[in-house]
Amino acid sequence: MDQIDYSQVRFSFIGTRKHLFKDKQYHVYVFDDSLLMGIKPNTQNPKYYIKFGINIKFRWTLKKTKEGWIIESFYFPYKKSAKPLFGSNYDLQRLKEFTNLKVTFENMNELYQQFQLIGQGSSGKVFSAIHTIEQKIYAIKSIKKKQLKSQLDYNQGAFKMQVSILKLLAKYPDNFITLKEIYEGEDMQCLVTTFLEGPTLIEEFERLKTTNQKRFSSLEVKIILKKLLINLATLHQNRIIHRDLKPENLMFKIKGDRTTLILVDFGLATYESFEMLFYPKCGTPGYVAPEIFNLKSTSKYSTKVDIFSCGCIFYKLLTGNNIFYGETFDEVLRQNKKCQIDFNLPIDQDYITEYSINLLQKMLLKNPINRINAFDALNHPYFRDINTNIYPSLRSLQFNEEIYEDEEINNEKREEDNNYIQLPKTSRKCQLIWNLSFFQQNSQKTVFDTNQFIEYDHLSGLRFVKVNQSPFVSQVLE
């Protein structure tokens, strides 16, 4: 071990290791990337040294007091075993918060009480749960380990990619779902995120139908699109592609506030700079960019695929209709592949104007080289009449300026920050993850072979049984 520079310590505290005959006190020092413990203060020969990483697992033990639940101790890995360290609730809470996205936690059932199933995305199920200590509601995305280990490690690599991306995006809570903690159990991998009060965009579309409305107001359309482009500009500045933009994956943090739109479900997201993409042909029919359909083994695509998907959403916002229409999944898929778009929409000078048509056309260009990017789209004349005094959150892109100066620095930073990823080797065989809710709601014919099975959920101490459909086959675009 190199010389330990104690001037870099973020915080320290005294912890206790309990033994049969005599307890021992340890000086605990927490650095940005590691934790060490020694009998003597500022020792150069600590007894325990833990380098933080996603493969390091901490387990927290709780104790109930008159004031409520507190953290009594935590277990840390040491020589293929787990050692407990006791400390004050204040110190251990601080340690837990500091290591939230630096290590993986265990024993989720003690820390969260499962509430209800709230969604099912392209790569897992989402539950609401109450935090035992905080008594706050969070969302938990759970993925079965056996699912992650399938398909030549595609899913395992995609999961680690998702974690890496969500960690990077955690500093943008106004733009994206915020990852709080990572948990692992015997059968499940779980991501704890913020719980969003508002509905999804697709739910809002459905609500409008019940009120005999087909569309949002033209002002709401502009606000929703601008906030979506702000989110995409932030995402693309970090060289990340979402790859599954659709109304189901857009949510409002606050019900009724259109300026709080954020992106969720990063199960198919990837770094633009990666040479080998997981599930290179992916997305949801009706929103897939033409370059994904036409992808060759030696070609790549860019963040512009998200702009095309955004254009499909913009079309639905303007007209109330899907841009690629079909009664069945196959029809939607065929229309999306053909990508024949009729821009001859009647000008009404409210929704359909010269400016809105122009921006729509630029977002939906078949050639991604000529397609507009998020930054330029935000400066389009279509947005000029939005009153930023009424909507101050839309005045600027509100970027975190701590961005990478060039691609080389960007890749270097990611490699340093995410050296735990160790992405598995993959072939270029094109495979696809779909959102099951799409088929359940919109198709008469699916591409899945399914069978019914009984599944037990173990996020909480309570068990309940439900019948689901299990997908086996997922090749579509080839």
Automatic annotation (TrEMBL):
UniProt key word ATP-binding: yes
Recorded GO MF terms: ATP binding; protein serine/threonine kinase activity
GO cellular component term, pick one: nucleus
Q: Keywords, A to Z?
A: ATP-binding, Kinase, Nucleotide-binding, Serine/threonine-protein kinase, Transferase
Q: Where does ATP bind?
A: 145
A Gene Ontology biological process noted in the UniProt record is:
mitotic DNA damage checkpoint signaling
Q: So which domain of life are we looking at?
A: Eukaryota
Domain named Protein kinase: residues: 112-383
Identify this protein by name.
Answer: Protein kinase domain-containing protein
- Organism, as annotated: Paramecium pentaurelia
